[in-house]
Amino acid sequence: MFSRGLRRGARIWVALVLVFLYAPLLLVIVNAFNSSRTFAFPPTGFTWQWWRAAVHSQGMWHSLANSVVIGLAATGIALILGTMAALAVQRYDFFGKNAVNLLVVLPITLPGIVTGIALNATFTSALGLTLGLATVVIGHATFCIVIVFNNIQARLRRLGTTLEDASADLGASSWQTFRFVTFPMLRGALVAGAILAFALSFDEIVVTTFTAGPTVQTLPIWIFGNLFRPNQAPVINVVAAALTLIAVVPVWLAQRVGSDPAGTRV
């Protein structure tokens, strides 16, 4: 269908795009083993020194623990509320259905700084709350819900209602139909949505800045705060390299389970 020259050009273009995307990440990984504090390129030597320093960094481990706790809590809230909203929009007809669909998706389209300012004003001025771990979880849940909502809604569209209708015709209650028919078919989308929501929460820095207050520090905030300190810069590079390598796992899992309509891979 396509000429040999066109196919060759397409391959070259794809290769250039991949280099553009991954060359900076590869440079981060290379510099994690660079003996130079200034990240001179090409590297002046090979060392594990910065990795040992990262392992013994108490600030890094504390920030990592905060990020994991916040990510898990925000993902849990998103799974419950996002799934309920998707089921309501896809399986029921009611007044304002399109408006609900728009309002649920809207937070992910807003700039993070707008969401952060709005949440900060709500927590501190309107509600009089002290900023801390709970306010960060609520702030992250606002956009994590969208990820779960979109995943579940897309899966429900693909599945249709045939099996659920058959279950109801055979005498199953609404709860039995959800438990034995709908939920098993949604497991793949739930896992994919949870992985993506956790990754989004773990990486968030703008909303966190406005909702964390002075007592809570997540890993992205810790990285940004230490990035320009000469003694900490090599450690930051190690943490960034480790996160780059670890990030491959959730992306792969999300793609694998997200492409399985029946949820049989979970």
Describe the overall structure.
Helix content is 76%, strand content 0%. α3 (58-91) runs antiparallel to α8 (174-203). It is an all-alpha fold and 266 residues long. The chain is globular, with a radius of gyration of 23 Å. The chain has helices spanning 4-31, 49-55, 58-91, 97-109, 112-126, 133-159, 162-169, 174-203, 206-211, 219-226, 233-246, 248-258. The model has no long low-confidence stretch (mean pLDDT 86). It contains 12 helices and no strands. It has a single domain (58-258), classed as MetI-like (MetI-like fold).
Summarize the topology.
Blueprint (H helix, E strand, L loop, with lengths): L3 H28 L17 H7 L2 H34 L5 H13 L2 H15 L6 H27 L2 H8 L4 H30 L2 H6 L7 H8 L6 H14 L1 H11 L8
Percent helix range: over 70%
CATH topology: MetI-like fold
Write the element-wise H/E pattern from the N-terminal end onward. HHHHHHHHHHHH
Instruction: Tell me the span between the first and last alpha carbons.
Output: 39 Å
CATH class term:
Mainly Alpha
> Could you name the CATH homologous superfamily?
MetI-like
**Binned strand content:** under 5%
Which descriptor suits the 3D outline?
globular
How many DSSP helices?
12
Under the CATH scheme, which architecture would be assigned?
A: Orthogonal Bundle
Radius of gyration based on Cα positions: 23 Å
Largest sheet: none
Structural class comes to: mainly alpha
Number of domain modules: 1
